[in-house]
Amino acid sequence: MVEPAGRILIVEDENKIAGVLLDYLAQSGFETHHLTRGDEVEGWLAEHPVDLVLLDLMLPGKSGLDVCKALRSGQPGRPAPAIVMVTARVEEIDRLLGLELGADDYICKPFSPREVVARVKAVLRRGRHAPASAPGGLRLDEAAWRATLDGHDLGLTVVEFQLLKVLSARPGRIFSREQLMDAMYRDERIVSDRTVDSHIKKLRRKIEDAAPGRDLIHSVYGLGYKYEP
């Protein structure tokens, strides 16, 4: 039996579009599955792990944005699948690839099915499941919620890991405290700016303990924080 090129879940409520994607991906050797509602995704994935989710933005039951947030929260002991968002709303692109959602790629409607297959292959080649390298000797293993710096385990909490992942993914970009709070807390709890400062302080201390003299996270007065190795 030939092993599939990858297992893909298509979440799309327009059956015509889904049918085209199913056909093209199957022809390229992928094992494909299709759901039409956003509120079905998490339960289905709990029983059927996949490598990548092609996720429409506008879905009945639960929006693609909310599904993406939930999947990025992860399931204990299981790597999160890669996510490629499908949208006709160009103004949402920054959010789709942004810190609070973390989609791996996006495709705008209308699209070429061949382009979709190429994007899916490219995302899978990059491989979310391997520990990701960031500038400055940092490696993040999302499956294990583990961060190492120059080979030293930083011993981060889940919130600290999420915070470091967001900052290191965009070196040099300044993130406001509000943006970082959105990334750290997905349950919409109310927290103060000082909570972010406290986590940053602890994160810096752990980096300093692992690599004395290394200052990777920088404060930008009046704006927020940035990662700069």
- How big a fraction of the residues is strand? 15-25%
CATH class of the largest domain: Alpha Beta
Computed structural class:
alpha/beta
Distance from first to last alpha carbon: 47 Å
Output the strand order for the largest sheet. 2-1-3-4-5
Query: Which spans have pLDDT < 50 for at least 5 consecutive residues?
Result: 186-190
Shape, please? elongated
The total strand number stands at 11
CATH level-two architecture of the largest domain: 3-Layer(aba) Sandwich
> How would you spell out the order of helices and strands?
EHEHEHEHEHEEEEHHHEE
Helix segment tally: 8
Number of domains: 2
The main sheet comes to: 5 strands, parallel
DSSP helix fraction = 25-40%
Assign the CATH topology of the largest domain.
Rossmann fold
How many whole angstroms does the radius of gyration measure? 19 Å
The overall average pLDDT, rounded, is 82
